[in-house]
Structure formats: structure tokens, C-alpha cells
Amino acid sequence: MSLSRSLFVCSAFGAILAAAPSGASTPTPLPTSDPRAEEIFAKAKTAWSAQAAKLPPFINYGALLRYGYHGHVFDNWWDAYYRAADGAFTLHRLTDEEEDRRRLAGVPFSIFAFKVYDTNRIAEPIRLNEPYISPIDSFGLLARNAPTRPGGTGGSPSPQATLEATPLGTPMRELIVVEAVARDYRIELAGTEQLQYGEAYHLVLTPLHDPGLYRLRDLWIDTTSYVTLRTTVQGLLSGKPYDAIRWTIVYVPIDGLYYLQQIKSDEPLRFGMDTLIPAMEIDFVDYHFPASVPAIEFQHLL
User: Fold this and answer.
1) Which residues contact 255 (CB under 8 A, 6 or more apart)?
2) CB atoms < 10 A from the CB of 282, how many?
């Protein structure tokens, strides 16, 4: 065989080997984010960090959990204190004995899981307790210490009790706090929108892994200060049916800082097979910032 023919055969054989599939598969590259969107995302995280350093020592506010069912609106009120130093909460249920007797009386039940009957048509169909959500929660954009229960201590993030629903639905528990970083999401800039408190960049986030933990889906970031004005999350906390639907969270500026104003469901909530709550919201109202709060306030058992 001539030298030129030998070189041709070797070259052809090498090409075949190069084209043949190897034993190890080539990993699929992760979708890349828009560089401008990632820059806005990073500045939003920085803005949250700056706010955390400026928080007043104590926050007092009212929490209203509201939903409608069978043409009746159910309001559940709490008075809450929050201590910035360690994230301690204390909640006091505000009750009206006559109103509670009227709406909590009766026993709801169903026939063949199709139609709900009730001995009291305006009885509250589900029992809710403890809207245990920080008034300065970023919902994963910025990691924080887990809230401290009254009488407890701070420390590493861990599951915390939140809203509980009985007899239908499962207790809501806060997931371990995870901080969102750019590699957890594909981030895209959808444009700018005019919101109530200013013009905002609209970022769309797609989780690259663990969507049950990384729940951010949209962020609206102020175009000047880069504070978060609004966000949507896929699932609130970890209890059914709260973790199966999308929620919109809105913040309100007070004295230059931003606090929760409202958390509202974007979809109906189904408890069991026969109780459908069309919408639910938690409103944070009447913010006050006392200079001091007695330590015993944070030692009450909920």
C-alpha cells in the first residue's frame, strides 16, 4: 500500500472514531439567563440586604386572613409583634365571642363527596390559625434566619409552623429557608411596568432544579432603588392546598422601607373533594414601630 493511501485510510478511520458515540454522555448545557436580567436580580438582592440593616427593632401590625365561601366573607384577625434582632414572632388572635359562636357553630359534612350540607349555612368551612409569615419576608430572594417562636431561640433555618387548616387540608409548614441565586433560575427580563409605587423591571424566573423549593416565578423590581415591589410564587409554604397554586405578594413602602401589604391567591384552593375556596388573601395592616416591647411579649405560648 502506498504512503498516500495509508494516510487516507488512517484519516478516514479516525473520522469514524470521532463520530462514534462515546461511553460517557455529554451533559446538556443549562439554559442561560439574560445578562441584564441577572444584573437586576443581583441588585435586588443587595437592596434586600440594605433594608435588613435598617429595620426598626420592633414591628407591630395587624394580620387579616380573608376568604369567601357560599356568598359569605370570613375574616380572621391577629395582632402581631416582630423582633428584628432574632426574628421572634408573637401573635394574638382577636376574637369576638358572639361572632365566633355564630360562625363556628354547626358541623359541615358531605354526601357521596359531591354536595356539602351544613347544620349552619354560614359556619366557617375550614379552621385557620396563625398567619405565621414575617412582615419583611422576601420569599427566598434573600436567605434569613428562621423566625423564632415565642419562648424559643434563633439559629439555623428549620421548618416552622404557619397556618393550620382542619379538618380539611393539611397543616402549613414553612420550608427550610433557601436563598435564590442566579444558578438556581433562568432569569429573563420581560420589560418594564408601571406599578402603584413606581416603575418596575419585570423579571421572569424559571427554576433549573427543585421547583418545590425554588418557588419564585416573577419579580417586579423598582427601576431606581431596585427594591422588590411585587412577586409571584408557585406555592405558599408547604401545606396542601396552599403549596399547589400561585400567589401574588405585594409590598408597601413605609418610612423608606418595604413591608408586606398583601398575599393573595391567584387560583382557587380545594380542601378535600368538596370544599372549594375561590380566593384567599392575607392583609398586613396598621403598621407601628414601638421603640421597645417587653421581653415577656415574646414568651407567650401560641
Assistant:
1) 289
2) 24
Residue type at position 22: S
Q: Quickly tell me which residue has 401589604 as its cell.
A: 261
Looking at residue 102, its amino acid is R
pLDDT at 207 over 50: yes
What pLDDT shows up at residue 62? Answer: 96
Contact 241/268 with Cβ under 8 angstroms?
no
ω into 157 cis (within 30 of 0): no
Dump pLDDT digits (tens) for 108-134. 544 444 445 555 666 777 867 578 888
Peptide bond into 290 cis (omega under 30): no
Report in angstroms the alpha-carbon separations of 220 from 37, 144, 282, 289, 299: 11, 21, 20, 26, 37
Helix-, strand-, coil-residue percentages of the chain, each rounded to 5: 20, 40, 45
Phi and psi at residue 100, to the nearest 5°: -65, -40
Rounded distance, CA 176 to CA 251, Å?
Answer: 23
Res 129: pLDDT: 58
Question: What pLDDT does 164 receive?
Answer: 40
Q: Is 226 helix (H, G, I), strand (E, B) or coil?
A: coil
Tally Cβ neighbours within 10 Å of residue 136: 20
Strand-pair category, 72-83 with 269-271:
unpaired
SS (H, E, C) 141-208: CCCCCCCECCCCCCCCCCCEECCEEECCCCCCEECCCCCCCHHHEEEEEEEEEEECCEEEEEEEEEEC
The CA-CA-CA angle for residues 252, 257, 259, to 5°, reads 40
Question: What structural domains does the chain harbor?
Answer: 31-291 (2.50.20)
Residue-wise pLDDT tens digits, 157-201: 333 333 443 444 455 555 446 677 878 899 999 999 999 999 999
